[in-house]
Amino acid sequence: MTADRLAALPAIPRDADGPVFREPWEAQAFALAVRLHEACLFGWDEWAAALGAEIKAAQAAGDPDTGETYYLHWLAALEKLVAAKGAVTDAELADRKAAWDRAARATPHGEPIVLGRELQAP
């Protein structure tokens, strides 16, 4: 992603080399947004507006905006935008979230979460 495209995004955590991520899922959410943009699902201005609206709503709801919740807002904006574009239904999103929640609960601490693990015998 070029520097001018990064500059269009609100307050993205970054250093001199580019975006920084605290957890692997943050990098995956970032990459997913980039890929969906490349697939022409949305433009950067549209994405920046969706992310900005999500951040403003969170701040209005009391988010202290310390940067720790940035990618939670990123993911929420992405979910809303892909649903609004018809790329996924609300039911599909809910089903996938529930599947990840079940998989996370079935995963021993310290192991990678594997979708479908909740279906495997212990």
Automatic annotation (TrEMBL):
Positions of the Nitrile hydratase beta subunit-like N-terminal domain: 13-102
A family per Pfam: NHase_beta_N
Matching NCBIfam families: nitrile_acc (TIGR03889)
This protein's name: Nitrile hydratase
Lineage: Bacteria, Pseudomonadati, Pseudomonadota, Alphaproteobacteria, Hyphomicrobiales
